Amino acid sequence: MKKLITIICISFLLVSATNLEPPSTPYHPSIEGTWELVSHYNYDDGVHPSDTLFAVDGYRQIKMYYNGKVMWTRYVPNDSVEWFGYGSYKTTDSTLTEKLEYMSASMRKIANSDMKWHMELRLEKDRYSQIFRDEEGNRINSENYKRLD
After folding, report:
1. How far apart are CA 145 and CA 149, in angstroms?
2. 52: confidence class by pLDDT, cuts 50, 70, 90
3. CA 114 to CA 123: how far, in whole Å?
4. Phi and psi for 93 in degrees, rounded to 5?
5. Is residue 86 over pLDDT 90?
6. pTM
């Protein structure tokens, strides 16, 4: 009987000392949410940023991603030109593709014919960069955002 009680006590101690938390999975950030532009990078060598241009006071560009849809708007102080767009988006671990379906007249003037933009994506929990590349794959510039929610 002593052996049985000892085995039960040891078993109880072992079970109570066991960590029953599920295994942790690595954090995978999501682009879903609301973002504000904080800066632009320009690339001279196609690899490293050569200079940083911060958003000036009053300038705001906001992007919202949700359920495969993107909407963005830009406000430029002392400028009556409207900048906004709406469409769909897709991401991979390293790419962001936006296809606009609706946009302001000013945006339509500079949009490419298929209204689709393929960008390199660098995504972290509270910030991301969308990097534009030329035909040869060299980085040209980027837009850098912080998460608002």
Report:
1. 12
2. very high
3. 25
4. -60, -25
5. yes
6. 0.79
